[in-house]
Amino acid sequence: MYQALLHATKFSLNQMKERICGRRNAPKQILKPFFEVDVNLEGAKSILKPSLEEVQSAINRAASHVLKSTKKVQNWNQKEIPEDQREPFYDWIAKDKEIVKVILLLTGSIQGTKNKVNDFLDRFTMYEWLWKEKPEESLKKFKARDPQLEDFENELSKFE
After folding, report:
1. Share above pLDDT 70 across residues of the chain, in percent, rounded to a whole number
2. What does the alpha-carbon distance between residue 128 and residue 130 come to, in Å, rounded to a whole number?
3. What is the largest CA-CA distance in the chain?
4. What region does 90 belong to: left with phi over 0, alpha with psi -120 to 50, or beta?
5. Are residues 148 and 86 in the same domain?
């Protein structure tokens, strides 16, 4: 029974790790996202909703729930012992080196993604003028220069 619970727990945690962190030296697979994150404009700043901290917190809770699912499962050899004194398999599984290793990888899994996300969010800074400047004023300034066709093309090329 212990081996079955240990295997199921390891398998579940490793599946989570592979979906979140990816698999080393494996061909790129197209997987459905484990989390859906939106980029929102808040004030003059682009932010993620939910934040990376909230995503990491959800991963931590999920890993904890997988591990805690073994708390109510007790060894059948303890039926002579009063129920409140029986030792659940959780105590053994939570100490397993492989389980601890995967839990640690999961609890820090988003840390490696932070730089990539920040680089992605930085790409929006080139468009800041769209929400920082008032469109009416920008249009007035542009028209005041008596723009030619080439000027319009130059303005539109900013969106490429």
Report:
1. 92
2. 5
3. 94
4. alpha
5. no
